Amino acid sequence: MCKTEYAVCGNPHLLEGSLSAFLPSLNLAPRLSIPNPWIRSYSFDGKEEWEVNPLYCNTVREIYPYSNSNRLLNIVDMAIFDFLTGNMDRHHYEMFTKFGDDGFLLHLDNARGFGRHSHDEISILAPLSQCCVIKRATLQRLRLLAQPEYRLSDVMRESLLQDPLAPVLTEPHLLALDRRLQLVLDAVGKCIEAFGEATVVADGSVQPQSAAVHRAQPGT
């Protein structure tokens, strides 16, 4: 196992890894695989539109179901999760079909998470920084996990002690969670400063009026 596109090699030929499968079969619980609107470019030939157009979210908001459901808010949640773990490889997400357009997203394939603890890939937060929307419940939980008595790294450390493979994450990875969490809150703070909390923070599954639309208007 040594491929240049993966930038990893075995020692001498095997890699340690993990596999977890908790989902029922497709016969029992059909699900859809849906391309992530913020899919990353995987070649040197060009860039995806979101990587070069800061107003890309305006386009996404015009597309069903992102135009009239909680899907965009769920995408932002997923981006925050991926940023905290350092996962740059969210090219698709999945959903159970029986719950319709307002179902929850399945965060499958997290193999590239927790790679470089010293690097924070800000581009993963593009759905948040470009759309400037976030669920109030998500923001409240993030703010709680930034408090000294409920620090995310401490919560994760305690939780992972129950795992047979404890400690699972090294201390630098745990500390990176705190650092990245603050970067998420900073990004939300910039959105609120620019557009106001009523425009940025969503109560329940109702999306606020688009902040991204305001960005497209000259002089605002």
Fill in the keyword field for this structure:
two-stranded antiparallel ribbon, ATP-binding, disordered C terminus, 220 residues, mainly alpha, 38% helix, single chain, glycoprotein, Phosphatidylinositol 3-kinase Catalytic Subunit, Chain A, Domain 5
Describe the fold and architecture.
This protein is mainly alpha-helical and 220 residues long. It has a single domain (30-39, 48-202), classed as Phosphatidylinositol 3-kinase Catalytic Subunit, Chain A, Domain 5 (Orthogonal Bundle). The chain is 38% helix and 8% strand. The protein contains nine helices and six strands, in the order βββαααβαβααααβα. It has helices at 49-52, 56-61, 71-85, 126-131, 136-145, 152-160, 171-195, 197-200, 211-215; strands at residues 2-3, 8-9, 31-35, 92-96, 134-135, 201-202. The strands form three sheets. Strands 1-2 form a two-stranded antiparallel sheet. A two-stranded antiparallel sheet has the order 3-4. Helix 5 crosses helix 7 (171-195). The chain is globular. The model is unreliable at 216-220 (pLDDT under 50).
Between the first and last Cα atoms, what is the distance in angstroms? 52 Å
Count the strands?
6
- So, CATH architecture? Orthogonal Bundle
Specify Rg, calculated over alpha carbons: 19 Å
Specify the helix fraction band: 25-40%
Q: What is the name of the CATH topology?
A: Phosphatidylinositol 3-kinase Catalytic Subunit, Chain A, Domain 5
Count of discrete alpha- or pi-helical segments spanning 4 or more residues: 9
Indicate the proportion of strand residues.
5-15%
- Mean pLDDT, all residues: 87
Coarse shape: globular
CATH class: Mainly Alpha
Largest sheet: 2 strands, antiparallel
Give the total of domains. Answer: 1
Unreliable runs: 216-220
Strand order of the largest sheet: 1-2
Pairing-aware structural class of the strands and helices?
Answer: mainly alpha
Topology order in helix (H) and strand (E) letters: EEEHHHEHEHHHHEH
Cofactor: Mn(2+)
Binding site for Mn(2+): 109
Pfam families: Fam20C
Family: Belongs to the FAM20 family.
